[in-house]
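Subject: Sanity check before I submit

Could someone independently write out the structure tokens for this chain? I want to compare against mine line by line before I put it in a report. The sequence has 140 residues.
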Amino acid sequence: MLNTKEERNQNIIAQYKAGMTLKDIGRDNGGLSSVMVGRIVKSYGLGPEDRNRVSTRLGEKNKNPISDIHERLGRRILHVRTFKRDMSPKPFAELIGVSVQTLSRIERGVYDISVSELDLICNVIGLEIHELVSEAAMIT
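---
Independent answer below. Compare away.
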């Protein structure tokens, strides 16, 4: 837990600049509303142009996933977690032993996931690694 309001705000600003949604930032910072997160961001003089957005369209300039396969794996993990396993981020993150922020980075494709972490995720969602990877490869 962050010690001061200023540390929390700096964390919020870093997450905003990294491209996280206001809702996800609020969830990661003690359940703040997206409106409150927006006010904090605005109080630092930041706007949409200050975000490093993760693009899901090929060829956009601000695309920042580590690689195309990381982005595809992340989208597949998000899909299985939300639609097939009906799990919210916090319990899922706890099951795989990462923070909600790290889970968000995995699902956005900006986290360099290890094979052992991928194996643990697959065990939790009930898929084999080869199934997850082959299904992710088909995502466009």
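---
OP: Matches mine. For the report I'm noting this point. Residues 54-63 have pLDDT under 50 and may be disordered.
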